[in-house]
Structure formats: structure tokens, C-alpha cells
Design brief:
Layout: H1 24-37, H2 47-55, H3 57-61, H4 68-72, H5 83-109, H6 114-119
Length: 120
């Protein structure tokens, strides 16, 4: 149920995604496609980390060992934030709010809709 916590007495794994293929390349391609279609909401997942692994050359080539995380992973590697996109989003929201404010003012200024005002 929404808002409930998963107790420490339960396995934290809520789902497992397994793919296979005729070879490593096909199995990885299927996994990447499956992960792109996977939808889980309400809890944090490790899908971003799994995507990092699937995209990493050492993993793709099979040239890795049990030190993969220590050798290649940093939290920044899966940081999805995009400051430029955040600025664009803030600007778009600002423009939308300004347009709504102007529309409300225009619609109530003399009782006529903007459509009628522009046709007069």
C-alpha cells in the first residue's frame, strides 16, 4: 500500500529482472531494452546503477573482476541531474505562470474574453 515501509525483516529485493541471449552481446542488449521498459514507482531502485554496468566497456567486453565497483563506479557516474535542463524547465514554468496571470487579468478586466477583445 502506498506510503508503507518495507520492513527490515523482508528481503529488500522486490523484483528480479533476468534476460538471456544466444551470446553475451544479445543478452546485454535484451537486458538494456528490458531495463528501459521497466517501471517501478514508490521506492528507490538500482536501475540506474544496472544501466551504468550494462553500458560500461569493461562489463560489455567481459574484462572485469570482483573489483568492478571499486575500479569503475562513482556516484557521479549515474547522476542524472542536468543543470541546463533544470534552467530551461524553470524558465518554461515562469513563462507559463506569467501567461496564466496575464490571461486571468485580461479575462476579468472588462468581462470580455481575450478572443472577443482581439476581434473587436
Amino acid at each position: 500500500e502506498q506510503g508503507m515501509e518495507v520492513s527490515i525483516y523482508y528481503d529488500p529485493m522486490i523484483a528480479k529482472l533476468i534476460t538471456f541471449g544466444a551470446d553475451r552481446t544479445e543478452a546485454i542488449a535484451r537486458m538494456k531494452r528490458a531495463m528501459s521498459e521497466y517501471r517501478i514507482s514508490g521506492v528507490q531502485t538500482t536501475l540506474d546503477f544496472a544501466q551504468f554496468v550494462m553500458d560500461h566497456e569493461a562489463f560489455v567486453s567481459g574484462d572485469f573482476d570482483t573489483h568492478f565497483v571499486a575500479n569503475y563506479y562513482t556516484p557521479e557516474a549515474i547522476d542524472k541531474s542536468n543543470p541546463e535542463l533544470e534552467v530551461v524547465g524553470a524558465m518554461a514554468l515562469s513563462n507559463l505562470l506569467q501567461e496564466q496571470k496575464e490571461t486571468q487579468h485580461t479575462n476579468t478586466s472588462n468581462g470580455q474574453s481575450r478572443w472577443k477583445q482581439k476581434r473587436s
